[in-house]
Amino acid sequence: MPSELFLKFRKEIQGFRVGLNMELYNAPCNDYEAKIVLKPLTPEWKWKFIYEPFHQDVRLLSKKIPITKFLNLQVILATQTDENMQVGVGHNFQLHATGWKWKLTTCLGGDGISRIRNKTSVGLFPGFDLRFGWRADYVLPELTGALGTGEPLFNMQSGRLQASLDRVEAILTHSDTC
């Protein structure tokens, strides 16, 4: 079972996409979030605006800027700093505190294990898409050996691959062209 289930409603209006996202999180505890998103429809869009009414959080995000093939930088200006913020300045109105937080994102990496993360989209018909967020954790096979040291002449660790489906998004888009 995916740990994140999203239902996204989108309406395209005069060169912009207005979205309402309903986000359900199963792990580590059940949680629900709603977001209102405004984003330009042009292929060279540079920003998007996100408002979370439950947290009264406002964010302005830049497009992810590729630094290398696998490394991206994203700038975020937000009213609050949170664990999902990549780069930006944040202000917490409840604590009357302002702070910096930054993070580079990549599809490779992980904590002590190699990881590939990706999203795959499938358009079922015009106006309805499914997007799957998946992850593959892997340890590459390892061959070792020794002679005259008391260690085995030949040793092999076969490696490991574990894949999981973390997120499922159902995206409903209404536009004049649908």
Give an overview in words.
The chain has 178 residues and is mainly beta. It has no helices and 16 strands. Strand 9 and strand 10 form a beta hairpin. The strands form three sheets. Strands 10-9-8-5-4-3-2-1-16-13-12 form an eleven-stranded mixed sheet, with no helix packed on it. It has a three-stranded antiparallel sheet with strand order 6-7-11, with no helix packed on it. About 4% of the residues have low confidence.
Spans where pLDDT lies below 50 across 5 or more residues: 81-88
- The helix/strand series, from N terminus to C terminus, equals EEEEEEEEEEEEEEEE
Strand order of the largest sheet: 10-9-8-5-4-3-2-1-16-13-12
Total helical elements? 0
Number of strands: 16
Helix content: under 10%
Distance between the termini: 31 Å
Radius of gyration, taken over Cα atoms and rounded to an integer in Å: 21 Å
Summarize the entry for a quick read.
By secondary structure, this protein is an all-beta fold. Helices cover 0% and strands 61% of the residues. The strands form 3 sheets. The protein has an 11-stranded mixed sheet with strand order 10-9-8-5-4-3-2-1-16-13-12, with no helix packed on it. Strands 6-7-11 form a 3-stranded antiparallel sheet, with no helix packed on it. Strands 14-15 form a two-stranded antiparallel ribbon.
